[in-house]
Amino acid sequence: MATDAEWARIRRDLCFGQVFEGTVVKVPRPGAIGIFVDIGLSVGGFVDVLLLPNEGEDWPAEGTVADFEIWWADSRQQIRLKPSDSRYLRTDFADFVERVRPSWPSEVGQPVRDQAPVIPDELQAVPRSDRPPANSPRDWRSGRLSFGG
Fold first, then answer.
1. Phi and psi, residue 87, nearest 5°
2. 130 with 54: CB under 8 angstroms?
3. What Rg do the C-alpha atoms of the chain give, in angstroms?
4. What is the pLDDT of residue 128?
5. φ, ψ (nearest 5 deg) of residue 131
6. What is the pTM of this model?
7. How far is the C-alpha of 14 from the C-alpha of 109, rounded, in Å?
8. Cβ-count burial of 32 within 10 angstroms (0-12 exposed, 13-18 middle, 19+ buried)?
9. Quick one: CA dihedral 142, 145, 148, 149, positive or negative?
10. Which of 108-112, 131-135, 143-147 tops mean pLDDT?
11. What is the pLDDT of residues 107-131, one digit of tens each?
């Protein structure tokens, strides 16, 4: 774990959309919480479930080496990433960005700034258009697919 001073130094050099080659080091619950990625820094990288495909078997497996972009970095010592490869993104990613983070295209290349991230509880209320309808037997709100840890 980095010191607060080291994290502040690292964060100052980060820009939204900055690409890192990373190795997926942990997929704790495929389809449920996200993946941990080593991008060669003293702080960890994480891709949230909300950015990944609906089905866990479509996620990059442990040991996968791929490019990842900085999606977010806040005061927590963790860099939030998004996969560069569309195979590892939710199928409705463009629509998701338009609904949840419409400023993303203009933020790419801009320095990461001190702003609170959208927290998971807020994101849970955002419907996934790539998920089955709410009355489907595969309803993610039913507990079969969980966003929690």
1. -60, -25
2. yes
3. 15
4. 54
5. -100, 160
6. 0.76
7. 9
8. middle
9. positive
10. 108-112
11. 999 998 765 444 444 455 555 555 5
